[in-house]
């Protein structure tokens, strides 16, 4: 039987085969190069079934043979690796001041990575949608020229995203109840591939879990370090969104009732006292200007400027208070700081770690480490592509052409 979100239903042959194809594809991704015998021994599928499934995956150009290996007991075996050369997965990240687009192949190899200025807070949802649609068309055109089929598109937005893909509220963009998924699909004129919308922190967590140095960590939290602060949460190896998709909004936990005003309208939110706006005197619209200001902060910190070091220590301690909430509530193995936190990590991390240890009830912060991301500013876009690849891993395979 295969269970659904409602009642159990009988599994037909197509269900079972799709599930088994996904099992074999995931095994090859995680263990390549591997043989058909390796797959049978590890998955419990019989050899004849594995041979049939592998033949199907080869026909779909998802897997390919690489030759024989003799470094094993018995007869030489034909080894298998991921192929996926005819395919691409696209991820887009919409932020307050920029849009990032990433395309990857089935193995996660980047085929394209673009970053464009984007005055998101100054424009309407319609203008934003038109901009994103234009970028997607250019990415799809590039993939078409490479003779690649687009498997899907996921768009990351900093805000509350419903399970239906509606942007319920994105405070830093000024959006409410925007059907970004539906409007984008219409703007792309039914593109022939699925379009999804998700929270940017969720997608960045997926990117870290699939591609980062802590890939495969069962309990992982990613903290965005953009204009806003959000948390993407992986627990027991699965992304957790909450009942309606609104989980992870740690940036709006109030740390100081008398603190600075947050963009959400409340006072003393973590985002207001530990976000990039707390580091800079003002958070400008242009990403180039924000990064220039950050470069100056880094220069002053390296030079030992007392005022700069004091600000970074305060921001780090406030951020540590938020991390301690995560450590006490979720007991993650690692919390990853992303976005604009990365260049500031040498000065933020000591204060974050000290504050986290002091405020976590479990010894040694429950084993929680705090590290800086290595995926760059495009982590959420990369995670958008990862979500598409996850759907392939789950059995939504491209048809045989």
UniProtKB/TrEMBL annotation:
It holds the Pfam family ROK. Belongs to the ROK (NagC/XylR) family. This is ROK family transcriptional regulator. It comes from Streptosporangium amethystogenes subsp. fukuiense. PANTHER family: BIFUNCTIONAL UDP-N-ACETYLGLUCOSAMINE 2-EPIMERASE_N-ACETYLMANNOSAMINE KINASE (PTHR18964:SF149), ROK (REPRESSOR, ORF, KINASE) FAMILY (PTHR18964). Residues 24-65 form the HTH marR-type domain.
